[in-house]
Amino acid sequence: MNDTAVLRLKGVQKTYRSGEHDVLPILQGADFILNAGEIVALVAPSGTGKSTLLHLAGLLDTPDAGDIIIRGQSTSTMADAGRTALRRDEIGFVYQFHHLLGEFTARENVVLPQMIAGVPKRVARKEAERLLEMLGLAHRVDHLPGKLSGGEQQRVAIARALANAPSLLLADEPTGNLDVHTADAVFTELLEAVRKRGLAALVATHNEELLPRMDRVITLRDGKLVTR
């Protein structure tokens, strides 16, 4: 196995059922390798399985067949506790909507996942401040999400995703809820943060203008992942 592979999908299958007889095959033997330091765009029409793929890659769902391998660790027979630990330690998520906790400040939103992972509060607070400063939010660390702009909220969400130093970042339309100017600025900062840390990143997007800034573009075709 390629020792730079952070994420590997091997023969992944996923089918959804609607009612007693309707079957909707989403993935049909999908194979994919994502290496450290690589940023790959995932582009496909709505309803074809982009979010399903990200949920499987992020160990939020399990395939019907095949294997999801994270940093060389097979998850096909892994117990729930092991999957949870692997997801916490190795994977960061950024969604279209920030999903910040409204009653917590920007700093506290970035501190919380670290404390869940067992990081001492003092250390977690320092790392949160460092990440927020890196994303241009040093002056907003004590603000609640409701007092932040849409772009600022998404920057906090990016900082939260990076807080536990993951090796894999999964982003589902990370700028889809922002205006064009803000989306470009936020995506630039996301790319810089990912490249600076040498992460592997899989980014689902409909924004064609972002594609030239990534290393590869893949799509879903007949339930398989192919280079576009």
Give average pLDDT, whole number: 88
The fold-level CATH name is Rossmann fold
Low confidence ranges: none
Task: Please give the domain count.
Answer: 1
**Beta strand %:** 25-35%
The H-and-E topology, N to C, reads as: EEEHEEHEHHHEHEEE
Tally of DSSP helical segments: 6
Largest sheet: 6 strands, mixed
**What's the level 1 CATH class?**
Alpha Beta
Morphology call: globular
Organism: Acetobacter lovaniensis
Protein name: Lipoprotein-releasing system ATP-binding protein
EC number: 3.6.3.-
GO molecular function, one term: ATP hydrolysis activity
Describe this structure in words.
The chain has one domain (5-227): P-loop containing nucleotide triphosphate hydrolases (Rossmann fold). The strands form two sheets. Strands 6-7-8-3-9-10 form a six-stranded mixed beta sheet. It has helices spanning 50-57, 80-90, 106-116, 121-134, 150-162, 180-197, and strands at residues 5-18, 22-35, 39-42, 65-70, 73-74, 91-94, 168-172, 200-204, 216-221, 224-227. It is globular. Helix content is 33%, strand content 28%. The protein is α/β, with parallel strands linked by helices. It contains six helices and ten strands; from the N terminus they run βββαββαβαααβαβββ.
Notable traits:
alpha/beta; Rossmann fold; 6-stranded mixed β-sheet; 228 residues
What's the gist of this structure?
By secondary structure, the chain is of the alpha/beta class.
Describe the secondary structure blueprint for this structure.
Layout: E1 5-18, E2 22-35, E3 39-42, H1 50-57, E4 65-70, E5 73-74, H2 80-90, E6 91-94, H3 106-116, H4 121-134, H5 150-162, E7 168-172, H6 180-197, E8 200-204, E9 216-221, E10 224-227
Parallel strand pairs: 3-8, 3-9, 6-7, 7-8
Antiparallel strand pairs: 1-2, 1-4, 4-5, 9-10
Helix pairs in contact: 3-4, 3-5, 5-6
